[in-house]
UniProtKB/TrEMBL annotation:
PANTHER family: PHAGE INTEGRASE-RELATED, PROPHAGE INTEGRASE INTD-RELATED. This is Site-specific integrase. Belongs to the 'phage' integrase family. Keywords: DNA recombination, DNA-binding. Gene3D superfamilies: 1.10.150.130, Intergrase catalytic core (1.10.443.10). GO terms for molecular function: DNA binding. It comes from the Bacteria. One of its GO terms (biological process) is DNA recombination.
């Protein structure tokens, strides 16, 4: 929103120097708020043009004074434009401080967001953070860029301008413009909360805009395949080898609890034989970094044997792109008579519920096998 802005010069006539001159003052007005400053100049009040805010006459002194006043006006105008573009919030005091060299540089939301994402990317490259989480931060960054452009017509906003109303407005944008459900909104608001925490911890922000904001994650039913549906999937007659691959990869995740990413990254080094002479999967989960130790059941072992040696990069399975696999397993499930909506993560739910817990595996063991950081995550399936 455009602010009303003006700069005028006037004389401080009540202060008369010994030589009869009086100080020239400047007044900056932004949206009705005013602030004054000294121009460090003195003039003969008889030569002052009150309406024009200038010295009359063609003398050298008059021309030099007017030149300096014009130069000040240009500088003040430039500072006003810079603050407006940078912060989208201008006050007369901020413009004066910038002109006098006393300006406090305000940190902005997108500036903090960009730096956070750059640092997070370095941690991902070092194997310290999950790539999926980085993608979430990047998605929210893009949504925030679009939100600021559509709702506020700016590219950035000062941290000090964040309010509870701003948070609620962003939530409404996610719901209406991006058609996000409540849990997705909750997921996307969390990165914004992270940026606010960073700002508060660095003392760039003194007031928490989330103090009056609340959104609760809705409880959802974790979908999984039943024993009968697993049997249909295993016994279904498929059209070609590609469909067999999609089914095998999905079943492998269902009988091990591995996520798609961890299944794709699985190598021969992750397959180990322990004291019980059984083969085990030992892998650090890409998402959490937590170590998972999973005993290979017969079905999972047979699937490994079917594809072992086909990859030149040391990986166990020749895994196509995620979207290809997802579309493939949905077509396979439909062909096998499964009417349930299929997601790949559903295979992990199936492992936890149908394969492990339903067969008496202790929840603590299931938590360790799934690589959960907290057993509370596993208790969702109990």
């Amino acid at each position: 929103m455009k602010s009303t802005f003006s700069v005028i010069y006037y004389l401080k006539r009540q202060v008369v120097k010994k030589d009869g001159t009086v100080p020239v003052m400047g007044r900056i007005t932004v949206d009705g708020s005013q602030t004054q400053f000294s121009c460090k100049l003195s003039v003969d009040p008889k030569l002052w043009d009150t309406k024009g805010g200038r010295v009359t006459g063609r003398s050298t002194a008059a021309l030099e004074t007017n030149r300096m006043l014009d130069k000040m006006r240009v500088r003040i105008n430039r500072h006003y434009q810079e603050i407006m573009e940078r912060d989208n919030f201008v006050t007369a005091e901020k413009v004066k401080n910038a002109f006098l060299g006393l300006e406090h540089r305000y940190h902005t939301l997108m500036q903090v967001f960009r730096q956070h994402n750059e640092n997070y990317e370095k941690q991902v490259e070092a194997g310290m953070k999950a790539k999926g989480t980085l993608l979430k931060y990047r998605t929210v960054y893009k949504h925030m860029q679009e939100f600021l452009d559509i709702r506020y017509h700016v590219k950035d906003i000062a941290l000090k301008e964040l309010t509870p109303a701003f948070i609620s407005d962003f939530e409404m944008f996610l719901r209406t413009d991006k058609h996000c459900c409540t849990n997705t909104v909750w997921l996307y608001v969390c990165p914004l909360r992270t940026m606010v925490f960073i700002a508060i911890n660095n003392e760039w922000l003194t007031r928490d805009p989330f103090r009056e904001y609340e959104i609760k994650k809705e409880e959802t039913t974790r979908s999984f395949l039943t024993k009968d549906e697993i049997r249909l999937l295993m016994e279904g007659k498929l059209k070609n080898a590609k469909q067999e691959l999609y089914r095998d990869l999905y079943l492998f995740c269902a009988f091990t609890g591995l996520s798609f990413a961890d299944m794709r990254n699985l190598t021969e080094e992750n397959i180990r034989t322990y004291f019980d002479e059984h083969e085990w999967i030992n892998i650090n989960r890409q998402k959490t970094g937590v170590v998972s130790n999973i005993r290979l059941l017969d079905i999972a072992n047979r699937i490994i044997g079917k594809y072992r040696g086909l990859c030149e990069n040391g990986r166990i399975f020749p895994v196509p792109h995620y979207n290809t696999c997802l579309a493939g397993i949905r077509a396979v499930a439909k062909r096998c008579g499964i009417t349930k909506h299929i997601t790949w993560h559903q295979s992990r739910h199936t492992a936890a519920t149908t394969i492990f817990l339903s067969n008496g595996v202790p929840i603590e063991t299931v938590s360790s096998m799934l690589g959960h950081k907290s057993i509370k995550t596993t208790q969702i399936y109990a």
